From TrEMBL:
Signal sequence residues: 1-28
Source organism, top-level taxon: Eukaryota
Protein name: Uncharacterized protein
Keywords assigned by UniProt, alphabetized: Signal, Transit peptide
Example GO molecular function: nucleic acid binding
Organism: Guillardia theta (strain CCMP2712)
Family: Belongs to the mTERF family.
Length: 441
């Protein structure tokens, strides 16, 4: 990786480096003076790698010791090169240099700057993968990070997250495995932007054994779950998590549950491709209680449950207590939907159960009721999809633009008729003044 792709140093880092250089210079001056010769101010300490030379140049307007003098009053240049300095001071200085050197070796510096990590974060990574300390910066770490950032366009921040989740990616054995997985995923039709997403979401995939894990899971998805082959790559990119799920503990129970609802193979394949997250939901704690609620409390038949789920598989992830009950309560108590009609309502517009009461449903309903002065407020129940339109982006602008040209929406039917039009058609309606059944004041 070229130094230009490294992050700039923070002022604190710069200060530490300058301090480090200064301490090294001071140390060599001290030794020279103690031995009675003139210190060689041009002897740049090399022990800390090229980074320090670069650092020295970054602040050429101030000399390192000026900075040190400014930053630690009373401990200026005079004091540092004072030949009378006591040997405890000298040892203190040496200990400090050694400590800084240990902390900021080339590898640590490189990780901090190329992956936007703090020293603490790098140390956490070292602790979780101690072998990292032995790896060669030049032969292992640099080439892999460089490849990740050029080939898969990972930013410094993404590299940092990747290393925090999956530090062993830098190990040589792992990087061979990495190549194999990349090739396998490429064969599955995943391009480099897909690879980027998988690396940022679920880097663990790159440590899976091809035969035993990866191909096994993929074959299960294709054969048992019936995911259409041409939709596999989109599915994996959408939800990289799915490849790391255990077939026996997670995927198969979810599949059996979906089959138990009465969904056929094509429907299950379709649902999985469109919304692979169904496999992340817990069968017993999430999906089964939700389906039971739809069936027992909303009186939706099993056939209709299948229809609703094909239409809106997200429903399977809604919590009964946090989402379904509060929404139904709002519909019954505030929006005036008779309790026994909620089931029909959900069948006609399953998305309704996904909207937030406070952010979508209540404001939209209030706006329609008040601003439009709908004469028959209960009427909106015939148009449940009304509530699926964005209040700020669709409903308000359209009502306002109609009001501006003197049209008044009198019934819910009118409102829905206007809202359901595609944008282009709506503009044409406005221009020609042909608004169908809409009353013109
Ligand atoms: C580096 O990480 C810090 C938080 O640790 C963040 O505020 C900063 O924006 C990141 N910089 C880049 C270039 O990503
Ligand atoms: C990569 O694949 C995804 C989905 O398969 C697609 O949406 C995207 O456009 C592709 N990107 C490139 C650069 O080909
Ligand atoms: C994956 O499994 C399929 C079907 O069993 C097989 O044809 C293919 O060779 C396997 N691929 C790899 C890379 O093992
Ligand atoms: C449940 O729905 C069926 C028809 O779908 C209906 O006959 C029955 O009366 C409903 N039961 C309740 C308790 O609403
Ligand atoms: C798959 O699902 C989509 C959206 O839910 C639907 O439009 C399509 O008809 C379904 N295809 C099959 C084969 O079920
Ligand atoms: C709302 O409509 C009713 C009749 O439908 C009318 O009496 C009332 O004045 C209207 N209110 C507003 C604010 O337009």
């Amino acid at each position: 990786m070229r130094p230009s792709s490294l992050l700039p140093l923070t002022s604190r880092q710069s200060y530490i480096f300058i301090l480090l250089v200064t301490l090294r210079v001071a140390e060599s001056c001290l030794s020279a003076l103690r031995e009675g010769c003139m210190p060689d101010f041009h002897a740049v300490p090399m022990g800390m790698g090229g980074e320090l030379l670069e650092m020295g140049r970054l602040n050429s307007e101030e000399t390192s010791s000026d900075v040190l003098a400014q930053n630690s009053p009373g401990k200026g240049r005079q004091r540092l090169v004072d030949p009378d300095m006591g040997s405890t001071d000298f040892m203190f200085l040496q200990a400090r240099v050694r400590k800084l050197e240990r902390e900021f070796d080339d590898k640590t510096l490189f990780l901090m700057r190329s992956c936007n990590l703090t020293l603490d974060e790098v140390n956490v990574i070292y602790r979780s993968s101690p072998k990292l300390k032995m790896l060669s910066l030049k032969h292992h770490i640099e080439p892999i990070l460089s490849r990740l950032s050029t080939e898969f366009r990972l930013s410094a921040a993404s590299l940092g997250k990747l290393l925090t989740k999956f530090p062993t990616i830098l190990y040589p054995a792992c990087s061979r495995q990495f190549d194999d997985v990349v090739t396998f995923l490429q064969v599955m039709g995943i391009n480099s932007s897909g690879m980027h997403r998988i690396l940022t979401c679920r880097p663990q995939i790159f440590s899976l054994k091809i035969e035993r894990n990866l191909n096994y899971t993929i074959n299960f998805l294709l054969r048992d779950v019936n995911v259409p082959r041409h939709k596999l790559s989109t599915m994996l990119i959408k939800c990289p998590h799915i490849i790391t799920l255990s077939v026996e503990r997670k995927l198969r129970p979810a599949l059996l549950f979906l089959q138990g609802l009465g969904l056929d193979a094509t429907q299950i394949g379709n649902i999985s491709a469109i919304y692979p997250y169904v496999f992340l939901f817990d069968v017993e704690n999430k999906m089964r209680p939700t389906v039971r609620y739809l069936h027992d409390e909303l009186n939706i038949s099993s056939d209709n449950i299948c229809r609703v789920i094909c239409n809106k598989p997200q429903l399977l992830g809604y919590s009964v207590g946090k989402k379904l009950r509060p929404t139904v309560k709002f519909l019954v108590e505030e929006a005036g939907v008779p309790r026994h009609r909620i089931g029909d309502f959900v069948i006609r517009c399953p998305a309704m159960l996904g909207y937030s009461v406070d952010k979508n449903l209540r404001p939209t309903l209030n706006y329609i009721k008040t601003t439009c002065n709908i004469s028959e407020p209960q009427d909106w129940m015939r148009y449940p999809r009304m509530l699926s339109y964005s209040l700020e982006r669709r409903i308000k602008p359209r009502v306002e633009s109609l009001t501006a040209i003197g049209h008044k929406l009198m019934t819910m039917g009118d409102v829905f008729h206007v809202m359901k039009q595609p944008e282009e058609k709506f503009r044409r309606m406005g221009r020609t003044g042909h608004l169908g059944t809409i009353h013109v004041l």
